[in-house]
Structure formats: structure tokens, C-alpha cells
Write a structure and sequence with these properties.
alpha/beta; 10 helices; 22% helix; 29% strand
Amino acid sequence: MKVTETRTPSGVVVQPAQKRSYDVSGRVFEYTAPSCEIVTFEDCILTSGSWEYGLAGIIKDKKFYHERFTKDANNFRIKSPFWSSARGKFDIDLENDFFYNYEMDEVFTWFNIGQYWHWFFEDLPLIRAFREKPDIPIVTNNLMQFQLDSLSFFPDIRDRLETVDTPAVIKANKVHAVTYPAISYRGRVASWAVEFLRDNLVPDKEGEHKRIYISRNDAVARNVKNEPAVIDMLVNEFDFVPFNTHKTNSMSNMPFKEKLRLFATADVVVSPTGAGLTHTHAMKPGGVVIDFNHSFEVAEECGWNNIADVCDLNWHTIEAETKDIPAERPKPKNAHMAVDVELLRTTVDNAINKRT
């Protein structure tokens, strides 16, 4: 079946679009965060999308709907068992043995790409829409452990999940799809989505450390090349505790609730920009976050510093020196960095003195 991409129609508004304007690190960010809507299709086909579940969508009368409730990227189009044609035209073979075929009555679709920031700021807030229709199953791909851990805070949603093997084609009498509350290519997100995380992902107790440094040197992108000097200064002069520097303090191996405790207790967090800052939503008002980023990136909002506006955090971005670009992720924004240690020392000292 050849299908044609079609713009997503309007649906039932759960949260309206929101104009945001605020100051972070001396820069004003202004944009409109999109509305969150439930869009309903009848007698349709639901697909789990491409190799990483991007382009999950609904086919109705040979029209393919995915805009606003799925991820789209060139990789999702060219590396996909679903789509055999070029950009803008898709062929799907509903009888192909490669697909897992299902028939369902009425469902919400919640296929997702399983990436950390996107899950928490794009997918998890959709729970607000799912609760508008509390008796309808929610169909999803197999979830990762951190996703399952986050759903322990939402037992009513966890009990409604219908997990399917993917790639999947589902013939359904009715599908409800929910639009994202974020413009994800820059991480611009509605304030209510941040509030949702802040108000629902509440740690059961506090952790131990008031000042923490989160490394990215276990990641492919945005490593700090002079990190030993950075850590030495933070630990010896300001009593910071580093994380993600070796297996015994790895954030990726840390239980989810322990991550929340870590941020809920921290007064000051220092880190290169990245997914390690996702849970700054758990910090107390007045907390300090200092991140490092490339000079060509700081003029636009990234997906973490908008948390400061909602949660009343003091966010400072230090422009780092851009170094080599990793071959595995060959984009300038993924280049490694070197941090001006003296500038970081002054920024930390001023931030701590201002708090006291």
C-alpha cells in the first residue's frame, strides 16, 4: 500500500498552546510551546514506525498521519523496515512476514523512541491526556528499564499498557493519538510538562550530597577534555562529589528513585549540557545549575535550561571551547569541549556566596 504524508488535523485540546518568555543566563528565550491534543482516527491502521520507532503513525484512507505525535528525522526514513520509498512517499506491505500484525478495538498509541530527555519531557506528560479517557488501553513498544521505573509513580497508567512486539501493524477500530507538548529539535517545552514532572516524580527521601558534578566522559558526545582539572578544583575547593566518572558512581546504573533523591538534595549541580540534567526538575527552588555548552549553541534554548524558569532555579551556562567532533556522532553540537577552569571557579564561588 502506498501512502501519502498528511498534516495532522486538530483534536480535543488537553492543554492549550503556550507563549513562553523568560531569562536564563542573561539570555531571553521566546517561543510558543505547542498544544497537547487528543486526535482520534476510526477504522485505521496503527504502525510502530521505523527502526527506532520514529515516524510511528496512523494510516487512514491511504493517508499517513504522524506530524506532532511522533519523531521525524532523516535516519528514521532511510533506515526503516517499513518505508521502502524516498522522502515524502511510503510503501507499506501489510502482509509482510517481517511485521507483527494485530487487531484491536480502541486504543491510545504511545510508541516512543526510548531516549531519555524525550521520554520525560515529551512522552511522560501525555499521561495527562490518557487520564481523560481512563478505561482505554495504551499500546506501546517494549519499554526500557528507566521508563518502567518512572511508571512506578503512575500505577494506573502502567496497568493499562498493552505492549506489542515491533515492528507492528495494528488494525484498529479507533486510535487516539496525543500531540507532543514540545518542539523537540531544540527541547522547547511547555511549562506544564515541567510542572508535571516536578509534581509527580517526587523522591521518597532525600539523598546525601549538596554539591554534585556529573561527567559525560562515558558518552560519545560532549566530553570535557580537561575534566581532571575541573574535578580537582570542584572537589578540593568546593567539596563537590563527582558522578559518572567510573562504574561505582555511574548515573546510568543508578536506580531511578536514587537519581531523584540526588537532585532533590543537591544545592549546586555542575555538568556539561546533556541528559544528565534531566532531573533538575526535582531540585528545590533557589538551587544552582552550572552547565557547559558550545558558544554557537547557547544563543538558542536547549532542552534542560527551560526547567529553571518553571522550578525557580539559578541557571548559569558557561561557554566552553569547542574541540574535536566524534566520528560516531559527526555534528558540531556533539563536539567535545574544554572548560575555562578559572571562569568555572568564579562562577561557582559567586553562586555559592549568593545562596548564603
